[in-house]
């Protein structure tokens, strides 16, 4: 046997250093040799050990320096510090290894029939490669399958690796079937190979599945080197990238079945499906070799691997023409025969679910249908479901970083069920079934772009949190991760692009950077929700379980298939008009814009398209996104505060307690949680080296101080102990947790330049948005819908109106009158310094400083100066430019439309500023009262006779009152 081993290693590695590696039960033995005689002797002894499953050697040229690791000896049971050959240790590639394995259960030897099937497949592959211009290979028996070794001469670089990888992938696609597979994992340079002459032990040796000795079957007299161009040609036979998507999508499986083309086997291929045809439709000279591929985007590639039949060239148009236009079978085309009465081929069956899905996308409300189907299986939690749906839609928006969702809530309240219910509405190819470990994503080769990654009650490791951050920052690109295998070989693992992450957990979502990248939704764990769920469960049990593949679910999957078929850009023409009440977290505005784009993408068949194919969002998309964004910043999520459900409940509990100082035990008793969990909510904690913030760090209304408490321990003994006391400022909490409000300013959408903030040539600090550069007036929206803030200022250095204070500037200028006015008919002309002085009084207000200050240069309209026309005239209004006009200015020359005349007659509404309001006159209400009368941005939740104001303005009133008290 040692002579056979010596002959084998001399053939595989003609000179140089080789590594011998033996895999045993739970151990690895290894040594480096340049003395092949000594190698054969030691391997023979090693092979006699029944614990050794197989003995292997390196195929490619190894760096001679590695001999010093274990020179001409085999070390038993390597430790972690003992290195083996890595890809970087290979000097040059000299073999293309083709390993054909029979399909069988793992960990067992092959049967005689399976073994023979692999040897026969090797003969077919060798014959095909000979046809492709390859020289004769070394043929070998691996003991369980078959080997083909082709001599190559390539450097050890990335280009050579891609060529070898592509060649093996082509052979795998063309020859793997339900009986045998071509191993595509043998492309790395440091790949170890079965040492012929040794025994292959997989499982126990039985009569049906015996252990066999690997051996060389045939060695050519002259081992020729495969030309590089032949190797590259083989690697490029099949398309590595998806062809362009056709205008009309065809279901290839239905098309083949409808035209009577038999399929021998199917298998996944680059996110699509590869069909191996039973007979070649292109030539009668052979039967095997024909195939067809349908890619994920619907594109189709068809061909035959025989050189005489195209050699893998694209032949789908020819195949389609053969069956659709001429309506005859391929053998009839070859012989020229045709039946007298030929029936046209029957069209593929109509997919009713897809037809219904397209009708909903074109004329219905796809979001409402998806949420309605969701609620058939999961009661309530509409906000959570809408977040998940928008997350799925983000995968089909080109200009987005994706929307990822974090769902929190108490255990057993339906977090997992909500996520899995939404997952059930998407095609199986785009979701991971079952649980997934932290590192499994790296090694899942079947993961395709656009997959939903659900982490259910999984603590994210530091590495996985970094991956999630990379996924949000580089959503449109694959994520590469370089790691070392157990054999200390470099492996580059890839997570595909456009994967969205759903996290469902009670707490411990991740660090602050992770949470800032997520849509944070809360599951509904109220008592009413518990009752609704129970009633639903009773109904299901009384009527029978819902079918898993009901029609509505299949329609939802068809909707997502249609949406995912194309990645489209989405443009928001009114983006400049979107306003935010707070922008402290700079990622939140981006998330709102993404929500708008995702809603428009879901309704893409009902939206206009730009010249570049972009979907044009409408204001109704903003309304839907703003509603969801508001819910996430209010009672259904912690988008602005980044609080989990339990953290928000803790703060609400403290607020209802009405105390300024509390302890952990007091809050524990009020919430009904354990002491440790309550303490973690307040103080935060550290898990596996990762710190997680508590309310002390997140909420500015809570602070902490330690105190020493003296208690009577009984029997005259005094006990002292430390106690943590938490202070709670209710006003700060209300201002901090008031939520985020977004709205759309009225005004025309302008895709070029927004003129409202451009400098004017005159003394006016800003030009009105209704006036262009030449001074002509553009279209102005109805003021009844205008929600912007305006500041009307009159400068007077020495005069002061009754009840109004004069604010002096260093230069002597003063503001004599300041009021928030909802009216566009006023003018301010002055210098930039004067402009600065009118903004200053508003700087103290958190809400007011966000107001938009507009100074109009158009003259005010006096209705008394206009006379009505007997008949409407087709002339432009000199204010808004609309036609027709109903009035003319006395003396002629200026026409006015009815809307502008009506607006001019309406008196201006002056709202008071906080400086003249008493906070003690306000009472908090449980419902929203619309926009704040002071800042016009926040939600009004305080009411008095004078005005309705928001949390921010109320907090300002309190601060002003406290300031006056301090002065006294």
From TrEMBL:
<protein>
    <submittedName>
        <fullName>Uncharacterized protein</fullName>
    </submittedName>
</protein>
<dbReference type="InterPro" id="IPR027417">
    <property type="entry name" value="P-loop_NTPase"/>
</dbReference>
<feature type="region of interest" description="Disordered">
    <location>
        <begin position="325"/>
        <end position="352"/>
    </location>
</feature>
<feature type="compositionally biased region" description="Basic and acidic residues">
    <location>
        <begin position="325"/>
        <end position="341"/>
    </location>
</feature>
<feature type="compositionally biased region" description="Basic and acidic residues">
    <location>
        <begin position="764"/>
        <end position="786"/>
    </location>
</feature>
<feature type="compositionally biased region" description="Basic and acidic residues">
    <location>
        <begin position="793"/>
        <end position="808"/>
    </location>
</feature>
<feature type="region of interest" description="Disordered">
    <location>
        <begin position="793"/>
        <end position="812"/>
    </location>
</feature>
<feature type="region of interest" description="Disordered">
    <location>
        <begin position="746"/>
        <end position="786"/>
    </location>
</feature>
């Amino acid at each position: 046997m040692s002579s056979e081993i010596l002959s084998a290693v001399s053939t595989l590695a003609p000179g140089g250093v080789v590594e011998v590696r033996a895999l045993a039960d739970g151990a690895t033995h290894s040594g480096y040799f340049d003395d092949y005689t000594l190698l054969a002797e030691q391997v023979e002894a090693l092979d006699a050990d029944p614990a050794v499953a197989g003995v292997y050697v390196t195929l490619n040229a190894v760096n001679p320096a590695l001999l010093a690791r274990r020179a001409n000896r085999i070390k038993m049971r390597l430790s972690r510090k003992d290195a083996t050959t890595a890809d970087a240790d290979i000097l040059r590639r000299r073999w293309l290894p083709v390993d054909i394995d029979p399909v069988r259960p793992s960990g067992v030897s092959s049967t005689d029939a399976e073994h023979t099937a692999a040897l026969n497949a090797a003969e077919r592959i060798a014959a095909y490669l000979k046809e492709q211009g390859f020289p004769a290979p070394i043929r070998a028996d691996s003991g369980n399958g078959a080997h083909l070794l082709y001599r190559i001469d390539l450097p050890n670089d990335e280009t050579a690796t891609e060529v070898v990888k592509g060649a093996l992938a082509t052979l795998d696609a063309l020859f793997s079937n339900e009986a045998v597979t071509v191993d595509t994992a043998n492309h790395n340079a440091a790949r170890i190979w079965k040492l012929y002459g040794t025994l292959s032990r997989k499982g126990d040796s039985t009569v049906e599945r015996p252990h066999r000795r690997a051996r060389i079957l045939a060695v050519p007299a002259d081992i020729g080197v495969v030309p590089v161009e032949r190797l590259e040609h083989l690697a490029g036979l099949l398309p590595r990238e998806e062809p362009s998507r056709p205008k009309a999508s065809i279901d290839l499986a239905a098309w083949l079945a409808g035209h009577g083309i038999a399929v021998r086997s199917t298998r996944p291929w680059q996110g699509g499906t590869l069909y191996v045809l039973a007979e070649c439709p292109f030539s009668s000279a052979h039967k095997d070799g024909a195939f067809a591929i349908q890619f994920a985007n619907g594109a189709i590639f068809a061909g035959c691997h025989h050189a005489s039949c195209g050699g893998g060239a694209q032949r789908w148009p020819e195949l389609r023409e053969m069956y659709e236009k001429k309506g005859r079978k391929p053998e009839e085309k070859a012989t020229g025969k045709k039946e007298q009465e030929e029936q046209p081929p029957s069209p593929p069956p109509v997919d009713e679910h897809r037809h219904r899905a397209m009708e909903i996308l074109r004329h219905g409300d796809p979001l409402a249908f998806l949420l309605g189907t969701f609620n058939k299986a999961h009661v309530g939690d509409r906000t959570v479901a809408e977040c998940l749906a928008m997350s799925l839609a983000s995968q089909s928006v080109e200009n987005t970083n994706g929307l990822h969702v974090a769902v929190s809530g108490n255990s057993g309240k339906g977090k997992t069920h909500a996520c899995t219910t939404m997952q059930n509405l998407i095609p199986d190819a785009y979701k991971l079934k079952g649980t997934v470990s932290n590192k499994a994503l790296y090694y899942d080769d079947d993961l395709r772009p656009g997959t939903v990654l659900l982490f259910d009650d999984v603590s994210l490791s530091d590495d996985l949190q970094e991956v999630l951050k990379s996924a949000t920052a580089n959503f449109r690109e694959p994520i590469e991760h370089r790691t070392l295998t157990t054999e200390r070989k470099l492996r580059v693992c890839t997570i595909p692009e456009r994967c969205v992450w759903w996290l469902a957990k009670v707490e411990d979502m991740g660090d602050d950077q992770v949470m800032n990248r997520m849509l944070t939704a809360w599951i509904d764990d109220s008592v009413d929700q518990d009752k609704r769920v129970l009633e639903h469960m009773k109904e299901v049990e009384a009527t029978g379980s819902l079918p898993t593949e009901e029609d509505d679910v299949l329609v939802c999957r068809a909707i997502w298939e249609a949406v995912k078929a194309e990645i489209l850009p989405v443009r928001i023409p009114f983006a400049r008009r979107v306003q935010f009440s707070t922008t402290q977290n700079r990622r939140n505005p981006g998330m709102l814009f993404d929500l708008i784009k995702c809603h428009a993408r879901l309704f893409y068949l009902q939206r206009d398209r730009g010249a570049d194919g972009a979907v044009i969002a409408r204001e109704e998309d903003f309304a839907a996104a703003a509603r969801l964004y508001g819910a996430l910043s209010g009672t259904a999520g912690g988008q602005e505060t980044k609080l989990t459900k339990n953290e928000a409940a803790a703060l609400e509990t403290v607020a209802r307690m009405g105390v300024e100082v509390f302890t952990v035990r007091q809050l524990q008793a009020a919430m009904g949680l354990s002491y440790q969990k309550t303490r973690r909510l307040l103080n935060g904690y550290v898990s596996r080296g990762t710190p997680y913030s508590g309310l002390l760090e997140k909420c500015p209304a809570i602070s902490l101080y330690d105190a020493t408490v003296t208690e009577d321990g009984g029997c005259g003994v005094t006990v002292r102990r430390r106690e943590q006391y938490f202070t709670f400022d209710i006003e700060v909490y209300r201002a901090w947790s008031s939520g985020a409000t977004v709205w759309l300013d009225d005004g025309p959408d302008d895709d070029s330049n927004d003129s409202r903030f451009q400098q004017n040539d005159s003394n006016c600090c800003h030009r009105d948005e209704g006036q262009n550069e030449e001074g002509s007036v553009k279209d102005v929206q109805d003021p009844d819908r205008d929600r912007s803030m305006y500041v009307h200022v009159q400068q007077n250095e020495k005069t002061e109106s009754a009840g109004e204070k004069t604010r002096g500037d260093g230069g002597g200028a003063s503001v004599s009158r300041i009021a928030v006015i909802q009216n566009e008919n006023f003018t301010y002309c002055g210098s930039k310094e004067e402009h600065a002085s009118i903004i200053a009084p508003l700087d103290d207000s958190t809400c007011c400083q966000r107001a938009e200050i507009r100074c109009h240069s158009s003259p005010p309209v006096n209705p008394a100066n206009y006379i009505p026309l007997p008949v409407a005239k087709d002339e432009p209004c000199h204010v808004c430019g609309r036609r027709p006009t109903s009035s003319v200015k006395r003396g002629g020359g200026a026409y006015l439309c009815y809307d502008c005349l009506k607006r001019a007659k309406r008196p201006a509404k002056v709202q008071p500023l906080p400086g003249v309001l008493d906070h003690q006159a306000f009472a908090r209400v449980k419902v929203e009262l619309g926009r704040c009368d002071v800042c016009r941005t926040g939600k009004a939740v305080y009411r008095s006779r004078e005005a309705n104001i928001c949390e921010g303005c109320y907090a300002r009133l309190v601060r002003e009152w406290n300031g006056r008290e301090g002065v006294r």
